[in-house]
Amino acid sequence: MESLNVFKTKVKFCGNKSLEDYEASVKTDADYLGFVFARSKRQVTPDQVAQWVALVHPRNKRLVGIFVNQSKEFILHAIRTVPLDVVQCHGDEDLTFIKDLKAESDVDIWKVIHHEDESTVDKLKPFLGTIDGFVVDKKVGNQYGGTGTSFNWGHIPLYDKVSCENDIPYLIAGGINVETLQELLPFSPQGIDLSSGIEENFAKSEEKMNLIERMVREHDKRTNTR
Ligand SMILES: O=C(O)c1ccccc1NCC(=O)[C@H](O)[C@H](O)COP(=O)(O)O
Questions:
Q1: Residues 75-112: pLDDT tens digits?
Q2: 10-223: CATH topology
Q3: Rounded mean pLDDT of the chain?
Q4: Among 16, 36, 87, 140, which is best to mutate for testing ligand 1, by the most ligand atoms less than 8 A from CB?
Q5: 136 CA distance to ligand 1 centroid (A)?
Q6: Domain boundaries, the chain
Q7: The pLDDT value given to residue 6
């Protein structure tokens, strides 16, 4: 019988920007698949994603829409078009915006915090009690995500504490790939979120995704048997 306290690191494969990317990600054991509806080299439209999901069932995965400072009307349109489970607000959206969005939709709302220093964690405070989860990422210039750049992971315990105290999940994002994951796993983040690190020639690589999953599973096995 499985122990009740088995810990499973959540995995999100983000930035699926073609049917081929989506099909490759669906085959994995990831918990979440992400689609960037914001301006980006990975930008997709709600209509495109709706077509892919109609063609290939997402199995047991939760679908996450990524938005950066976009209108509430556009986000609600995306929710009506794609069976999204989560809206990830990846820009400078404030509490009023998130409360309005929550009032008009029944999806989970995650807020992204861009880590700068140890005080960044305080930026989460106003959102606690409203958001359903958060993602910690790294902003580079005016690029809000998908940069392949990581922040100082020594600060993860600060975010972990907020997550435990408020009983909300979080993912660590930014610059995670098959090499850097070795340095990240000792911090035992609750979940990881990857985009550039699972690409090869700008397409999702099944090989990289499988390797990432294997590394995470081995880490979980070690942690759970400690
Ligand atoms: O992936 C993008 O192009 C992107 C653009 C603008 C905002 C967010 C974006 N991605 C959202 C994600 O959740 C990524 O997984 C996260 O930023 C990590 O990206 P990476 O450093 O490339 O792994």
A1: 999 999 999 999 999 999 999 999 999 999 999 999 99
A2: TIM Barrel (3.20.20)
A3: 96
A4: 36
A5: 11
A6: 10-223
A7: 83
User: How much is the pTM?
Assistant: 0.96
Indicate the pairing of strand 199-200 with strand 203-204.
antiparallel
Q: How far is residue 122's CA from residue 173's CA, in Å, rounded to a whole number?
A: 18
Residue range 49-78, pLDDT digits in tens: 999 999 999 999 999 999 999 999 999 999
CB of 196 within 6 A of ligand 1: the answer is yes
Paired residues of 140 in beta bridges: 143
21 lines ligand 1 (CB under 6 A): no
| Residue 14 near ligand 1, beta carbon < 6 Å | yes
Task: Give every CB contact of residue 167 below 8 A, 6+ residues apart in sequence.
Answer: none
Is the confidence at residue 174, as pLDDT, over 80? yes
Measured from the CB, is residue 172 less than 6 Å from ligand 1? Answer: no
d(C-alpha 82, C-alpha 125), whole Å: 30
Q: Give me the residues paired with residue 67 across strands.
A: 89
The pLDDT of 190-195, averaged and rounded, is 98
Ligand 1 lined by 67 (C-beta under 6 Å): no
* Residue 225, pLDDT score: 79
**Mean pLDDT, rounded, for 165-176:** 98
| Atom 13 of ligand 1: nearest residue by CA position | 14
Query: Is the CB of 90 within 6 Å of ligand 1?
Result: yes
CA distances from 114 to 20, 84, 117, 133, 136 (A): 30, 23, 9, 14, 6
Q: Is the CB of 175 under 6 A from ligand 1?
A: yes
